[in-house]
Amino acid sequence: MRTEIKSLAGKIQPLDEVEANHIAFVKEWIDSGAEIFRIAKPATPDTHLVAYFLLIDESEQKLLLVEHKKANLWLPAGGHVEPNEHPRETVAREIVEELGIKADFASGAPFFLTVTQTVGNESRHTDVSFWYILRARMTDPMQYDEREFHSIRWFSKDAIPFDQSDPHMKRLIQKLTLHKILAAG
Q: pTM for the full model?
Protein backbone atom coordinates (compact mmCIF):
# COMPACT_ATOMS: atom_id res chain seq x y z
CA MET A 1 0.00 0.00 0.00
CA ARG A 2 2.93 2.36 0.65
CA THR A 3 3.89 2.13 -3.03
CA GLU A 4 0.29 2.91 -4.03
CA ILE A 5 0.14 5.93 -1.70
CA LYS A 6 3.43 7.25 -3.09
CA SER A 7 2.14 6.73 -6.63
CA LEU A 8 -1.09 8.61 -5.82
CA ALA A 9 0.91 11.56 -4.52
CA GLY A 10 3.17 11.55 -7.57
CA LYS A 11 0.25 11.68 -10.00
CA ILE A 12 -1.23 14.86 -8.55
CA GLN A 13 -0.53 17.89 -10.73
CA PRO A 14 0.52 20.56 -8.24
CA LEU A 15 -1.21 23.92 -8.28
CA ASP A 16 1.83 25.75 -6.99
CA GLU A 17 5.16 25.46 -5.21
CA VAL A 18 3.41 24.76 -1.89
CA GLU A 19 1.64 21.70 -3.26
CA ALA A 20 4.79 20.58 -5.10
CA ASN A 21 6.66 20.75 -1.78
CA HIS A 22 3.91 18.78 -0.04
CA ILE A 23 4.09 16.08 -2.72
CA ALA A 24 7.88 15.91 -2.35
CA PHE A 25 7.51 15.67 1.44
CA VAL A 26 5.06 12.77 1.11
CA LYS A 27 7.36 10.85 -1.22
CA GLU A 28 10.33 11.30 1.15
CA TRP A 29 8.16 10.45 4.18
CA ILE A 30 7.01 7.20 2.60
CA ASP A 31 10.54 6.32 1.48
CA SER A 32 11.79 6.89 5.05
CA GLY A 33 9.91 3.81 6.24
CA ALA A 34 7.98 5.80 8.86
CA GLU A 35 4.52 4.57 9.83
CA ILE A 36 2.04 6.41 7.58
CA PHE A 37 -1.24 5.23 9.10
CA ARG A 38 -2.65 6.37 12.43
CA ILE A 39 -2.32 3.34 14.69
CA ALA A 40 -3.51 4.86 17.99
CA LYS A 41 -5.81 7.76 18.82
CA PRO A 42 -5.47 10.64 18.98
CA ALA A 43 -2.18 11.12 17.14
CA THR A 44 0.19 8.13 16.90
CA PRO A 45 2.27 8.52 14.88
CA ASP A 46 2.23 12.31 14.91
CA THR A 47 2.21 12.40 11.07
CA HIS A 48 -0.41 10.22 9.34
CA LEU A 49 -2.74 9.92 6.35
CA VAL A 50 -6.14 11.54 6.04
CA ALA A 51 -8.64 11.52 3.17
CA TYR A 52 -10.87 14.56 2.69
CA PHE A 53 -13.80 14.65 0.30
CA LEU A 54 -15.35 17.77 -1.06
CA LEU A 55 -18.92 17.45 -2.28
CA ILE A 56 -19.61 19.83 -5.17
CA ASP A 57 -22.92 20.64 -6.80
CA GLU A 58 -21.58 21.85 -10.15
CA SER A 59 -24.95 23.09 -11.44
CA GLU A 60 -25.40 25.30 -8.36
CA GLN A 61 -21.66 26.08 -8.05
CA LYS A 62 -21.71 25.23 -4.35
CA LEU A 63 -19.62 22.99 -2.13
CA LEU A 64 -20.44 21.30 1.15
CA LEU A 65 -18.43 21.94 4.30
CA VAL A 66 -18.95 20.52 7.77
CA GLU A 67 -18.66 22.51 10.98
CA HIS A 68 -16.21 20.18 12.73
CA LYS A 69 -16.52 20.01 16.52
CA LYS A 70 -12.92 19.05 17.40
CA ALA A 71 -11.24 21.45 14.97
CA ASN A 72 -13.77 24.27 15.42
CA LEU A 73 -13.45 24.90 11.68
CA TRP A 74 -15.52 24.59 8.51
CA LEU A 75 -13.86 21.69 6.67
CA PRO A 76 -14.50 19.15 3.97
CA ALA A 77 -15.72 15.89 5.48
CA GLY A 78 -13.26 13.03 5.73
CA GLY A 79 -11.23 10.97 8.12
CA HIS A 80 -8.13 9.05 8.98
CA VAL A 81 -6.98 6.37 6.58
CA GLU A 82 -7.02 3.01 8.34
CA PRO A 83 -3.91 0.79 8.22
CA ASN A 84 -3.49 -0.62 4.70
CA GLU A 85 -6.65 1.11 3.49
CA HIS A 86 -6.59 2.97 0.18
CA PRO A 87 -7.58 6.65 0.66
CA ARG A 88 -10.38 6.18 -1.88
CA GLU A 89 -11.78 3.41 0.34
CA THR A 90 -11.53 5.80 3.28
CA VAL A 91 -13.69 8.30 1.41
CA ALA A 92 -16.27 5.63 0.52
CA ARG A 93 -16.42 4.51 4.16
CA GLU A 94 -16.39 7.98 5.73
CA ILE A 95 -19.12 9.47 3.54
CA VAL A 96 -21.55 6.78 4.69
CA GLU A 97 -20.52 7.23 8.33
CA GLU A 98 -20.51 11.03 8.31
CA LEU A 99 -23.24 12.02 5.85
CA GLY A 100 -25.29 8.86 5.27
CA ILE A 101 -24.84 8.81 1.47
CA LYS A 102 -22.76 6.94 -1.08
CA ALA A 103 -19.72 8.41 -2.79
CA ASP A 104 -20.06 9.63 -6.39
CA PHE A 105 -16.43 10.27 -7.33
CA ALA A 106 -15.75 12.93 -9.95
CA SER A 107 -12.46 11.09 -10.48
CA GLY A 108 -10.92 8.01 -8.92
CA ALA A 109 -7.76 9.96 -8.16
CA PRO A 110 -7.19 12.58 -5.49
CA PHE A 111 -7.31 16.17 -6.75
CA PHE A 112 -5.22 17.97 -4.13
CA LEU A 113 -2.64 17.11 -1.48
CA THR A 114 -1.77 19.01 1.69
CA VAL A 115 0.44 18.59 4.73
CA THR A 116 -1.06 20.48 7.66
CA GLN A 117 -0.48 20.94 11.38
CA THR A 118 -3.86 20.41 13.03
CA VAL A 119 -5.57 22.95 15.26
CA GLY A 120 -8.44 22.74 17.68
CA ASN A 121 -9.02 20.92 20.92
CA GLU A 122 -7.34 17.62 20.03
CA SER A 123 -3.72 16.53 20.25
CA ARG A 124 -1.68 18.47 17.73
CA HIS A 125 -0.32 16.41 14.88
CA THR A 126 0.34 16.55 11.14
CA ASP A 127 -2.26 15.40 8.64
CA VAL A 128 -1.11 14.32 5.19
CA SER A 129 -4.40 14.80 3.34
CA PHE A 130 -5.53 13.53 -0.02
CA TRP A 131 -8.50 15.62 -1.19
CA TYR A 132 -11.08 13.90 -3.41
CA ILE A 133 -13.84 15.64 -5.35
CA LEU A 134 -17.30 14.08 -5.22
CA ARG A 135 -20.44 14.98 -7.11
CA ALA A 136 -23.59 15.77 -5.17
CA ARG A 137 -26.72 17.88 -5.35
CA MET A 138 -27.79 20.34 -2.73
CA THR A 139 -31.15 18.58 -2.72
CA ASP A 140 -29.63 15.17 -1.85
CA PRO A 141 -30.92 14.08 1.56
CA MET A 142 -28.08 13.78 4.07
CA GLN A 143 -27.95 12.75 7.69
CA TYR A 144 -24.77 14.14 9.22
CA ASP A 145 -23.00 12.67 12.23
CA GLU A 146 -23.95 14.98 15.09
CA ARG A 147 -21.18 13.52 17.28
CA GLU A 148 -18.57 14.97 14.88
CA PHE A 149 -20.25 18.02 13.38
CA HIS A 150 -22.25 20.95 14.69
CA SER A 151 -23.80 21.38 11.25
CA ILE A 152 -23.23 21.09 7.50
CA ARG A 153 -23.71 23.81 4.92
CA TRP A 154 -23.43 24.45 1.19
CA PHE A 155 -21.25 27.44 0.30
CA SER A 156 -20.59 29.37 -2.88
CA LYS A 157 -16.84 29.81 -3.30
CA ASP A 158 -17.14 33.50 -2.43
CA ALA A 159 -18.99 32.81 0.84
CA ILE A 160 -16.58 30.29 2.40
CA PRO A 161 -15.43 31.46 5.85
CA PHE A 162 -11.74 31.15 4.94
CA ASP A 163 -10.62 32.49 8.31
CA GLN A 164 -12.48 29.58 9.96
CA SER A 165 -11.50 26.85 7.50
CA ASP A 166 -8.59 24.68 6.45
CA PRO A 167 -5.53 26.86 5.79
CA HIS A 168 -5.30 25.47 2.26
CA MET A 169 -8.95 26.11 1.33
CA LYS A 170 -8.23 29.27 -0.73
CA ARG A 171 -5.64 27.36 -2.75
CA LEU A 172 -8.07 24.50 -3.28
CA ILE A 173 -10.70 26.91 -4.59
CA GLN A 174 -8.07 28.41 -6.90
CA LYS A 175 -7.26 24.93 -8.24
CA LEU A 176 -10.94 24.04 -8.67
CA THR A 177 -11.44 27.27 -10.63
CA LEU A 178 -8.31 26.72 -12.73
CA HIS A 179 -9.58 23.23 -13.66
CA LYS A 180 -13.05 24.68 -14.42
CA ILE A 181 -14.76 22.58 -11.75
CA LEU A 182 -15.95 25.84 -10.27
CA ALA A 183 -16.70 28.82 -12.49
CA ALA A 184 -14.34 31.78 -12.52
CA GLY A 185 -15.44 35.07 -11.01
A: 0.95
